[in-house]
Structures
1.
Amino acid sequence: MNKELLKKEQPVVFQTLSNALKNQRLAHAYLFAGPKGSPKREMAILFAQSLVCCHRDEDGFACQECESCLRIEKEEAIDFKWIHGDKARIKKKDIVDLQSFFETTSVETGNRRIYFLDQFDTATVDASNTLLKFLEEPAPGIFAILSADEKSNVLPTIQSRCQWIQFRPASQSRMRALLEEETNPENAAMLTEAGYSTKRAKEVLSWDDFDLIREAARDYVLHWDDISTVLKMQREVFIPKTDRMTREKITLWLEWVLYFLKKDEVSLPLSKKVRIQEILIESMDLLRHPVELALFLDKIYNQIRKVVVS
Ligand SMILES: [Zn+2]
């Protein structure tokens, strides 16, 4: 993610770090906290680069292009250690290894060195306690960046030794871009519009019948005046007493129907579209309460059909 986008999406974070860099008023440790999907990792890399880059811009940030910047990004720099807590829980051994790395590598050059503990909120208690000792005796020129989805998941004693930088949730366009790394643009667009979190979106995308449900919805909105469409839904998609007949899968189908309806894939007068939209939204609400799912679906098919053929 480039600097301009970070500046636009996280103006407060950008300004705070920019002031620190420009005025050289740097803390020894930072805690980047903010919901999943917010660009904590991108900002951590940029900030680390900015601590060592010789070609900084007017905001105090790194050029992102020089050799030193690229080495950090590729994790090839000797003065930067990145522990990937998003891939495996950070353990005591990770912190011990980190300490010995910083102890054994030369400080003669006086260069700044940085470590980044990504997703520190998943670290073990032992890891936290070991890190705490490290933070209590900050060595000159060593900077720590910790990231966490929830600040409160980090030990208070660690929080109090870090400067807290709060990120705001990712914008819709960013959510969509993140999801596009996982799936096709159409799926990403629908899941973003329906308000899925990235975590939940990934779960839903992993369902075996995700594509089938999407195509069933597409087929349904294109032929909903045709009675055989309903029969097909009953026989091939939401078949009573099967694994697919669940609240969450029916919700996904309703979300797809709503998405296609809004996307103008159907030619209906506006007033009818609005009425169908109301039916879909009411149905999603109803689905939060206990209902008999087969009857519930039949009611939706009927209601919509009435609107379409009226
Ligand atoms: Zn640079």
Note: The two ends are 50 Å apart (CA to CA).
2.
Amino acid sequence: MNRMYLIALAAVIALAGAAFWAFNTVLEFEKPSIAVKDDLSTIGQGKALALTVADLKSGIRSVSVTISQDGKDAVLLSQTYPKGTAEEALNIDVNPRGRGLKDGPATITVVAEDHSWLKNRETLTLETAIDTVPPQIGLISSAHNVNAGGTGVALYRVSEEVTMTGLKMGDRFFRGYPFAIQGKPCHIVYFAVPSSAGKGDLKILITARDRAGNESSALLPHLVRGKKFKADKITISRAFIENMSPTFRQQDPRVPTTPLEAFLFINEKLRDENFKTIREACSRTQPKPLWEGPFLRMKNAAPMAGFGEERSYVFEGMTVSRSTHLGVDLASTERAPIESANHGSVVFAGPLGIYGNAVIVDHGLGLCSLYAHLSEISVKAGQAVTRGEALGASGSTGLASGDHLHFSILVGGEFVNPTEWWDAHWIRDNVTGKLSESASQPAAPAAKAQPAKAKAKPKKKKARG
Ligand SMILES: [Zn+2]
């Protein structure tokens, strides 16, 4: 009796289990899900279709993607999957070129089937428009005569709505911002010229990508004036390191306890990390110019070190580390007032590693100024500041050997020589002048753009400080 009961119970459990399994796998009625992230209302060269297909119960059996136009079908993907494939992320090339399709309306169909007995099927239809014509770029500004380590500004027009545009120089990219000259829409880009740039060794491209993913680029004619930067040897004493490292260690327990290792960590690893923080702060730039007129230079201050100086650090007779000085050091009295060089918005205010207490002000369109080693900060991130407004007081916080201001300018997250931005003539010739000169010129087709001719006009050097 008892035994019969047990057998019956086991059978019931087995049946229930089998039914449960069948219901959840082979006999389920749930269709696979198809999720598309991108906007595919228009497709062109370089556009991809990113989609996620999922079937959590019986798994995905197959996925197919087809594009149809005027009764013709082109298969973009046809794939089968083994049992147990619950989710699949796909990135499908939907470039219509070479598939016998022409510009105009088309339909993309995605079909996904699962492994259940019923082969549950989901179909997703996307209406799209094929557009394979890349945006045209017309340069507006001319005579891009730039200095190594300096800033360049270019103005251009694009023939259609773009999702990405800017200036490419090797692996550097500078975003172009929508702008207007006398009510006519165009784009403006500020770019940083590498300190190492010499004559003719830079390839500068203006690029643009439209909504369909078509990309085009145009060479920016330019002329680089090379510049030799000073080399400077700095002797680091054991006492100097032992004096400053406890403060760094308080903020960052990773700072090693042996003097040389501590210095190398601060001067190299921390410097790199601080640069990332600076770039991140500068990326929160506003898409319009906030600044006006020449940037202010710290009042009554003597220059202590210039931009681009190649520093080598000597410890107990050995060169142990190197860095490039990417700003200008200015010294006045101790705890001297520090003012914002121009109108802008504070994007960073606080301790910043080797820069000590630092303030970063955004001036719009990717242009930022940085004030380092402050003893005191009187502004907060998010605050708007005007030209000459107090930011704090000078000091020697961070990696500094005495009370001074380290002043930097950044363009698109790259350090540039600040002296240009102090110079009213440079600003007129290279920035504001370009805007008024461009206002009277029609956009030149990029293909016909001629290389910039060097202006023979010699530039007067101004004595500063
Ligand atoms: Zn400095």
Note: Residues 305, 325, 327, 329, 406 surround zinc ion (CB under 6 Å).
3.
Amino acid sequence: MTAPEQPYPSRAATFAAFGEHVSRGKTAMFEKYGVDVVMGERHGACFHDAYDGRRLFNCHSNGGVFNLGHRHPAVLAALRQALDTLDIGNHHLVSGMRARLAERLVATTKGRLPGVVFAVAGGEAIDLAIKVARAATKRRGVVSASGGYHGHTGLALAAGDAKYREPFFSSAAEFTQVPFNDVDALARVVNDGTAAVLLETIPATLGMPIPEPGYLKAVGVLCQTRGAKLILDEVQTGLGRTGTLWAHEADEVAPDAIVTGKGLSGGLYPIAATLLSRELHAVFDEDPFRHISTFGGAELGCAAALAVLDVVEAPAFLPRVCALGERFAHGLAGAPFELRRRGMFMGLKFPFEDAGLMGAKLLIDAGIFAVWANNDTSVVQFLPPLVCTDAEADEIVGIVRKVFG
Ligand SMILES: Cc1ncc(COP(=O)(O)O)c(C=O)c1O
């Protein structure tokens, strides 16, 4: 494994250039907290600092982007092979690669959601889901969870937390938010003007509150009786992270749309997708150019995503995720935080605000990269790669126990 060559000779020079041209706010924040990591060599469950080589377990996994670890060999091989003959293709034309990936995604829903629209990123795919729900229902309203997070594009931003949307004046009267896990609150606002209810199956940025038994099922029934479409954001929870392929499979709910992204191409090529019911997909029958994404469903991304699906659909994969989750639960039993967990989707919930922030800093110093939940700072988001070996899992548990001992 060779480390990628760095464009700047030192950490200080990298920070200076990044602060000057990319984000002053980020460099100032990292300097304040004494976090000076620059990603260098990366492989499997770990990456190394570019300048001093220190190793960090990646327990952020970029919200699921690195579910299969860094540079998974099968995904890398598929992408390398695709690079010999393909490029992004042309989104105006019919494409076998796009069709094959769509067919595979549809099969994950047992054909219940037979249409797929590709995007470059999760936010774009959420926007698309809201657009089609509006077009199909001829309604404008969107109800989502307070403190939820769906990305920073137009409609996704309007459905997210106030701190992201208000600086950009994106709040709109048609967007309403209610507490997660509260069906009664939802029932009070979903009406004949509601096009869609949009929820993360488990809201990551809100600190991984696990849906209470029956909650999502009741949401599904409510949507059906009131004629609103249910969109489930599985950008972080999907593709095996929770021990089922889609997290909502455990909740006996049948959404009208599922949004996926992040881990879909193993962190090697950007691609996202919205899976749609036949009714929602029909919005494009009359005019297929109503919605366009030049890079959405790029053929190179399709090649990577097909390889990811081969890995996560292998018979032993999901049982292994469940076993690994149990291993973490067992190893972390008795630690001074509440372990919120479904499969390998985990949050370390501390009893006071900002503890997640401090916890993440302590973990980084001890060799585990993790971040706090931005909309509940008492929680550390904890997403080790799903490909951890038992030995790696035990080492991670050992570090966590030592840090919070
Ligand atoms: C649950 C969820 N939905 C949507 C998004 C937006 O995805 P992207 O950043 O690829 O636009 C994110 C990103 O973190 C997310 O966590």
Note: DSSP finds 14 helices and 15 strands in the chain.
4.
Amino acid sequence: MGMLAGKRALIVGVATDRSIAWGIAQAMHAQGAELAFSYANDRFRERVEPLAASIGSKLLMPLDVTVDAEIDAAAALVKSAWGHLDILVHAVAFAPREAIEGSFTANTSREAFRIAHDVSSYSFTALARATAPLMAGRNGAMLTLSYLGAVRSIPNYNVMGPAKASLEASVRYLAADLGPKNIRVNAISAGPVRTLSAHGIAGFRTMYGGFKEVAPLRANITIEDVAGTAVYLASDLSRQTTGETIYVDGGFNILGLPVAEE
Ligand SMILES: NC(=O)c1ccc[n+]([C@@H]2O[C@H](COP(=O)([O-])OP(=O)(O)OC[C@H]3O[C@@H](n4cnc5c(N)ncnc54)[C@H](O)[C@@H]3O)[C@@H](O)[C@H]2O)c1
């Protein structure tokens, strides 16, 4: 029996087989969960469809998280197919490219700030609102993905930092609000992983390359590493943990001065 046997999960955020959401989906499937997937738009459908099919998922839906009607339709589809939901995985982020390079002060336009916060932070609350009723009477678990840029300034991460800070604060408010309904809400703050989104951030290669030289555990972070913690947070093993941001970063966040050995 897997740790997630009998549980049903909606996975929002698979774009490619390198996506963190795909790593989480594979691990949840291996632990016995039944999965539904969404794709952001038609461009991603052809990539997500074969991945979903490869692990026997029968529920696939379009979901642009900036469109309320699509969020409602996704929740309605899950309800009609399954009647309930146990796990929500939100692994979605976006900021206009010009806002994730160079000067934070100069490049954070009002519109870039709005888009980054809407797609990367507000969408989690919107999805939580739509899916919480499906978790009634179950030990529900909602998960999102954050990054150290929420609490430290990281070159080029720029407007995504405030957006992730807002996301982590939302995790605490959602956890307080939904706890009495027996729904837990947590974030995983992952170290750098080579994905489509990550490569949109200027200087990511340098950040990724230097990471394993200084992180206490001396390794880069993989989607499998993140997935292990996601399975734990979705399982009943973490039944008294909510509102937390758990780091999966080889200990990088504890360093005051990351310095490589000579
Ligand atoms: N890769 C890293 O280094 C890293 C580190 C820490 C946290 N994260 C976070 O992990 C999460 C997943 O990112 P990833 O690195 O796997 O990259 P990814 O590019 O594989 O995934 C990002 C996803 O966001 C989706 N998305 C963007 N705009 C959307 C919209 N309007 N509607 C619906 N979906 C939309 C994309 O379709 C894609 O599936 C993000 O929240 C990211 O910030 C990534």
Note: The two ends are 47 Å apart (CA to CA).
